[in-house]
Amino acid sequence: MDFEKFISDPEGFSAEIKKHIYKALQTAVKGEYSAHKDYPVYCTKKKYRQSTMTEGLPILIPSIPDVILDWAGIEDKSITHDDLLILDLETTGLRRGGGMIAFMIGLGYYENDNYVVEQYFLPEPDAEINAFDLILPHLDKKAVLVTFNGKTFDLPVLESRFLHNQLWIDLRSKSHIDLLHLARRLWKKKVPSCALETLEYYILGHIRDKELDIEGSIIPQTYFQFLITGDPELLQRIFIHNQTDVLHTAALFAMICEQIDYPLPADRDIRIDYHAVGKLYQSQGRKDEAMNILTALVDENYITPELVYDLGIMHKKDKRFPEAESFFRQGTDLLHNPSMLELSIILEQRNKDFEQALLVAEALSFNLLADPYGNAKKLTDLEKRIARLKNKMDKPVKE
User: Fold this and answer.
1) How many domains does the chain fold into?
2) CA-CA distance, 31 to 44, in Å (whole number)?
């Protein structure tokens, strides 16, 4: 360190050090600095062909199913992949608040047959306002945001930082598809968790290279270390991590769109929980599509207690009681407690077969007694049902 120069011209010395740090960052990670005179933003840009497999993952979205747009509350059904802006932040903390900033903003969008990933990195925290200057045109141009856990994390963080910089941007009113919540609907019963890296492994069949990637928990301290030392070596991993998040969010959304659009593909994809897909259609009021999806699973001998129960409930709501009874009987054969209760109700109220209704109710009572504390309320209600059925059986039949 040149102490004489530092003492004689501290500002000039700091500017020289900053120049060396900026140059080292550009050497470590290919990119360019923004044109801002003070506190430029470091920008990277990479293009992927939509028509090719990226790291073995398709990223082309042929169309966005209406059921997803309905689920996301998006009325405009003409939305295509060209209207999407995928967003992912790297921040100085894992929880909102406490002056946390987004030191890297990753964006992904479709343009001219390419999927483009852009990253805006803050070499200094004071560059934040300039990063917003760069991303606002993207937010204005693209109609729909796509994130992974953006409702809980990314969007509130951005809103907070916009307000801090006296920018009044209403992100909450912008159309938004949060893939975490969609993934939970589709895979919560098939995977250990719905974290993005877990879905990458179990659903996309991808394992991140630990030699190149970085654990999310140490990303904040890695950025702080860069601010202190100016050493950009570990920053390379953050750029790769963020780029992978933006890329795989697109790949996951592409796979979902392709596989759950109705009519569903003829060849079943083992990664897809089609029962959950049927429930998604049902939740959006698309009863016919939901019924067809779930019935097709039964026809293909994919039978689970929950599946036949859901079909039974759907037929019961439509007052198709013989069909409902048939599905509840299948669930009863599989010792599914909710199906047993529904079968007992139908036998009593519709068929007036009190004896059979009592037998099913007593069998259900035996099952519930295996966990009396967890089923206390159900057992109390069931005891009343059993008593009522016995009372009905004791009454003489009117001729």
Assistant:
1) 2
2) 4
Amino acid present at 122: L
Average pLDDT over residues 173-194: 94
pLDDT at 1: 45
List the one residue out of 169, 155, 182 whose CA is nearest residue 259: 182
Q: What's the domain range around 368?
A: 303-394
- Kindly state whether residues 381 and 320 are assigned to the same domain: yes
**Euclidean distance between CA atoms 207 and 322, whole angstroms:** 48
- Under DSSP, is residue 89 helix (H, G, I), strand (E, B) or coil? strand
- Structure-token match 């809103």, residue found: 159
Q: Tell me, yes or no, whether 62 and 189 share the same domain.
A: yes
Which letter, b or e, does each residue of 176-192 get, where b requires 16 or more Cβ atoms within 10 Å of its Cβ?
bbbbbbbbeebbeeebe
In this prediction the pTM is 0.89
3-state secondary structure of 120: strand
User: Are the beta carbons of 2 and 10 closer than 8 angstroms?
Assistant: no
Backbone angles phi, psi at 332, to 5 degrees: -65, -40
